Amino acid sequence: MELEKFSYDNKIVKAFIIATVVFGLVGMLVGLTAALQLVWPIFNFDLQYSTFGRIRPLHTNAIIFAFVGNAMFAGIYYSMQRLLKTRMFSDKLSWINFWGWQAIILAAAITLPLGLTTSKEYAELEWPIDIAITLIWVVFGINMIGTILRRREQHMYVAIWFYIATFVTVAVLHVVNSFEMPVNLFKSYSFYAGVQDALVQWWYGHNAVAFFLTTPFLGLMYYYLPKAANRPVYSYRLSIIHFWSLIFIYIWAGPHHLLYTSLPDWAQSLGTVFSIMLIAPSWGGMLNGLLTLRGAWDRVREDVVLKFFVVAVTAYGMATLEGPLLSLKNINAIAHFTDWIVAHVHVGGLGWNGFLIFGMLYWLVPKMWDTKIYSNKLANLHFWLGTLGIIFYALPMYISGVVQSLMWKEFTPEGFLVYKNFLETTVQILPLHMLRATGGALYLTGAIIMTYNLIKTAYAGKFIANEDAQAAPLTTASHGNTGWHAVLERKPIVFTTLALVAILIGGVIEMVPTFLIKSNVPTIASVKPYTPLELHGRDIYIREGCVNCHTQMVRPFRSETERYGEYSKSGEYIYDHPFLWGSKRTGPDLQRVGGKYGDSWHYYHMLDPGSVSAGTIMPAYPWLYEQLIDRDQTALKINALRTVGVPYAEGYEETANGDLDKQAARIVENLQMEGIEVMPDAEIIALIAYLQRLGTDIKVKDNTVSANQ
Amino acid sequence: MYKNILQSIDNIAIWPIISFVIFFVFFLLLILWTFTVNKQFIKHMSNMPIDDATSNSNPAGHEK
């Protein structure tokens, strides 16, 4: 048969590699800053753009979408062409994908420090950027499916399936979780409220980890590990079962982020069961990766690429065992809201994603520049700095998590909390946070060394922009009787649809009942929508990223009800667009903070937290005292919330500012009695109004709980 | 609105059961298939990353 000549596009891969390295360094540097802020508040720089609440989402977004995202594209664009023996479907679409993605990153880097955020973790970007993400993702999908349809290889290798599942699922997750009602160009409210918003968000959050940080990287593992080891994967059969069971089971496990919260119990149990089941496919994949090196372990000693891969796959195994264990209710009761979770995600992020990326880059760059790595010594140094970095990061955070949890839950023999003041538990873990920052610094140093090494390598070689290849065109020749699954692999569109069905089913079964059956969210008659001033305050709370350190979810444990007050009921959140339950307690829970302190306490506390609670690591918020709320937005906010179901009376938007003024005047008066002069339109007034409202609805007298049976 | 539509579906409980059966059967067939599939095919598939059709690629293992 006549062989067709064509070439692989390396230029697009090069662009994505550069973006990976640049944003990797930026993302890690921002992360290091955040780590320092949690020890020394001075690193918040007293600027609103650089406080922890805004820096933390910048770090997570930069690492997930800029560093890991660009690496994913680089890895996919390189391997897909070669696995399918064809150039990408369209060079133009490739470049739209590249520049569009970088534009989105730029938009994120500008809007997040400005406080433009939806507050939903890993989905913080506001609605115009959400739309842009959707468009660029579709461009990527068209380019990918187009390439698959033009392939010269009859069957799709397992890596391609993982890429397809990634495309399909991330599209579904992103669109469903981003349903929001715009208030203006820079502000929107989640379409969902309270418990439902939480369920959708963690269905998204969990599966963003699954389908943005895991499946594409498993695809990359199945390509680059055999490639670097120069031997086929241990068991191709296992990889097939790995794929289908992983994508099917993963999607169900989201509710394990909400154990002991107000989420209906059956949904929590479902999340736990499927999380435990996840161990099987995850470890199947890990073993498949590690066993690929059987009989070649001697090479791991010399080949730095393999070293990185071995640690990456091991970290994947550790994180995917730990995750299901954390989903057990008894372990979750201890670990949730503590630094343990931070350690867990960083074993995944630094170990699995980071090291797989580093290994891939050390393999790709010499290959694409047709040379050898500039310095094996430096690469080895990077490996050891990175490994030490992971250990110095994870271990202190594990200890910190356990310390936090034990201190939160310790009672005296008389039955009182030993550490009544939450601050005591925070001060205790600061040395561990210092060690964590050291770990991060080591890891970043390694990445800087890699950057130098890769640049030197590239300069020593000659870039192959288009790599020549030849292959026979696709014919109907088959490998004998290979059965129904092999047929499936020849039909990418059918395959994609099946993958879509597999991932939809879990989400639908969890979400539809929560949305439909009213008894899942018993309503409480005394819970009323927020007043206009509280609404402004809540938006300031969202803008400042308070949710990054403070939860609004008192779990039904004695240690929590003793410390914070009545445990949280799902009916309390029905007007919360978005929900603000949070996922980490660097500071205390705020669900019952309303009425706990006087207005002047909040006034002084936000101005200079250290003067009210000595030794706190909370940053100061002096700009709230100078900036004024935008009263023109009140009507728009109320209209938007009414559209998503909050029962503000028709026409209330006209009179809302009147109510706002009255409530503000009351707070100003309270403060005046304490000798504080403040403008009624100052942002701090709105924030105080919101904080004083928090969790007070169920304290109203004659509260009647009317669960709709 | 959409709540009422979905609630009015008769025997909505049958759908999860049907989905469970479909998926159970799918995985059963999948496992059966992996055990019975042609060895040559598996070999061809697992060698794909190593043979990428470029001039300097290693064609070893393609049809050993």
TrEMBL record, chain A:
It is a multi-pass membrane protein. Residues 16-457 form the Cytochrome oxidase subunit I profile domain. Heme b 2; high-spin binds at residue 344. GO terms for cellular component: plasma membrane. The chain crosses the membrane at residues 12-40, 60-78, 98-116, 128-149, 156-176, 202-224, 236-253, 273-292, 304-321, 341-365, 377-399, 434-455, 493-516. GO terms for biological process: aerobic respiration; electron transport coupled proton transport; respiratory electron transport chain. PROSITE patterns: COX1 (PS50855), COX1_CUB (PS00077), CYTC (PS51007). Its cofactor is Cu(2+); heme; heme b. Binds 1 copper ion per subunit, denoted as copper B. InterPro entries: Cyt_c-like_dom (IPR009056), Cyt_c-like_dom_sf (IPR036909), Cyt_c_oxase-like_su1_dom (IPR023616), Cyt_c_oxase-like_su1_sf (IPR036927), Cyt_C_Oxase_1 (IPR000883), Cyt_c_Oxase_su1_BS (IPR023615), Cyt_c_oxidase_cbb3_su1 (IPR004677), Cyt_c_oxidase_monohaem-su/FixO (IPR003468). The keyword Zinc does not apply. Belongs to the heme-copper respiratory oxidase family. Cu cation binds at residues 206, 256-257. Heme b 1; low-spin binds at residues 59, 346. This is cytochrome-c oxidase. It comes from the Bacteria.
From TrEMBL, chain B:
It comes from the Bacteria. Keywords: Membrane, Transmembrane, Transmembrane helix. This is CcoQ/FixQ family Cbb3-type cytochrome c oxidase assembly chaperone. The keyword Transmembrane helix applies. It comes from Chryseotalea sanaruensis. The chain crosses the membrane at residues 12-35.
